[in-house]
Amino acid sequence: MTETPQTTCAIVDDEAMARYGIRSYICKTPGLKCVAELRDAFELENYLDHNPTPDIIFLDIQMPEISGLDFIASRTVESAIIVVSAYEEYAIRGFELNVCDYLLKPVSYPRFTQAIEKAEQYLAYRKGPNRDKAIYVRAEKVYRRIRTETILYLESIENYVRIHTVTERIMTRITLKELIATLPPNMFIRIHKSYVVNLTMVSEIRRSSVVMEGGEELPMSRRYREDVVRVAGEC
To answer: How far apart are CA 79 and CA 191, in angstroms?
Structure first.
């Protein structure tokens, strides 16, 4: 018999009773599986370095030495992050860091299930079969659906990416490498350490730049030019 796929979860909290409470909710929720209970950000970092990334991480804020929010601000984590905290005042910063939900202790089971629904929606967006037609990114506390054919180019700004579309610019907290992985291959290509372009929106390829439809010129590094010309010729 084929085993039903489960959504894997990790709990990070320095309080044993808090970990027990979340674990009990995970155990009573069909489709969820707790794969790790960790006491602080250091244990989480070690776990992520040596194990498959869990689908969902329940993360406390107030922990010894490194807070949960400082950890996710310093490292890109592909999991859906659900903050579990006794402190309401950190909620705004949490959403600025693209957490899926923010639960206040003590957490009721109905509120827990609401957070799981949000997290699973996020995971479905990232793993869904329709990603060749659209992507979903977190921006201004909501998930935005962006049709890939409307994207002109992506601009990397530290741990953020500004998505330039034909109608607007959208800022999301994600690395350029992660975002490229969600896009259809051979349609988007890196031209510079800070830029990825939609080849269908390129009007000219010059020696050290590309010109987008509409006339905007973007720098192209020498190391990427050969690949750009080759892929453009295959399109």
So the answer is: 28
Distances (CA, A) of 109 to 20, 21, 120, 122, 167: 13, 10, 16, 20, 41
Binned average pLDDT, 10 residues per bin, the chain of 235 residues: 72 94 95 94 92 94 83 83 87 76 93 91 66 73 82 92 93 86 82 93 91 92 85 64
Nearest to 31 by CA among 130, 119, 125: 119
Strand partners, 162: 155, 171
Distance CA 7, CA 56 (A): 7
| Rounded CA separation 80/78 (Å) | 7
Q: What is the pTM of this model?
A: 0.59
Beta carbons within 10 angstroms of residue 166's beta carbon: 13
State the pairing for strand pair 101-104/80-85: parallel
Distances (CA, A) of 51 to 43, 55, 106, 178: 12, 12, 29, 19
